[in-house]
Specification:
By secondary structure, this protein is an alpha+beta fold. Helices cover 56% and strands 17% of the residues. Helix 3 packs across helix 4 and helix 3 packs across helix 5 (108-115).
């Protein structure tokens, strides 16, 4: 009888431990750390939304992330884990993506679809053409 009571408790503990592991892994990503750092104050709200979308898309694929602003343009520099993507690094113009989102009135799911068309290399090729 006692073993019947212990099994559900073990199941709940395992589910809780898995949830905590997933949350901890996400909070340790470079993009998530960037979202909670002091350097985030240089971004507009629209640029922060793009950064959050990128954080969701490239979770556990980015090794390093840095943001800086030059001439009213916010640049995000990403260094990827090459086990998951074809290019080692990418520079993202957050300002351009934010403007496009506002001008075309795109919701987050449409922006996410635009950014996940392919690997980052495919995105770069698409911008060059």
């Amino acid at each position: 009888m006692q073993s019947l009571l212990i099994i559900p408790l073990i199941m709940v503990a395992l589910i809780g431990a898995h949830w905590m592991k997933v949350r901890l892994q996400k909070s340790l990503t470079p993009l998530n750390q960037l979202l909670h750092s002091d350097s985030i104050h240089i971004l507009t709200e629209a640029e922060k939304r793009i950064l959050k979308i990128l954080d969701d898309l490239y979770v556990n694929r980015v090794l390093e992330a840095e943001v800086h602003r030059t001439d009213d343009v916010a640049w995000l520099e990403l260094i990827f884990d090459t086990r998951y993507v074809l290019v080692p690094s990418m520079h993202v113009n957050l300002t351009q993506f934010a403007r496009r989102q506002q001008e075309e009135m795109l919701d987050d799911s449409q922006v996410r679809k635009t950014l996940t068309v392919g690997t980052p290399q495919d995105l770069i090729r698409k911008r060059i053409q």
